[in-house]
Design goal:
The protein has 157 residues and is α/β, with parallel strands linked by helices. Helix content is 39%, strand content 26%.
Length: 157
């Protein structure tokens, strides 16, 4: 099995989600199934089928989380340094076309969330940034077309 790189924060978030799903969601779903069973005929009981579907989805996610946690390669970003972009770096970019500033942290696949500025190590922008330094120009091929950025800062926090 391949190790999955992730930050300590991403690992903690996965553990929190696993705990929530095992201790809270599982109990809620069991209660919903029990209440639906009490309604009678299960073959035409929409509440029962919905609860069983929710149970299946929850148990599948629990297995996925357990696998990710078991294969986690936790990288302490605060102990990293240097001026070259690598996993864990928080990078400030300026769009060459619009002069808009953007900030991204390069993280593991399970913790990626573009809306919060976290991009997966396997994403096109992260692959283009790896190995670059402040002042370098970066060309990124995205599904929406090519973009050009300049690296204005690299931090490890």
């Amino acid at each position: 099995m391949d190790k999955v790189p992730m930050t300590a924060g991403g690992f903690a978030a996965l553990e929190d989600e696993l705990k929530q799903r095992q201790q809270v969601e599982r109990q809620r779903i069991i209660q919903a199934i029990s209440e639906a069973r009490a309604l009678g005929d299960l073959s035409e009981n929409a509440e029962y089928h919905a609860a069983k579907e929710a149970q299946s989805l929850n148990e599948g996610r629990i297995q996925e989380l357990e696998s990710l946690i078991g294969r986690a390669d936790i990288i302490d970003v605060s102990k990293l340094g240097g001026d070259t972009i690598k996993f864990g770096a928080t990078v400030q970019l300026i769009d060459d076309d619009t002069e808009e500033k953007k900030s991204y942290q390069i993280v593991g696949e399970p913790e990626a969330d573009v809306r919060s500025g976290k991009v997966s190590i396997g994403s096109p922008i992260a692959r283009a940034l790896i190995g670059k330094k402040v002042g370098d120009s970066v060309q990124v091929n995205t599904p929406g077309g090519g973009k050009s950025y300049e690296v204005i800062s690299v931090e490890f926090r």
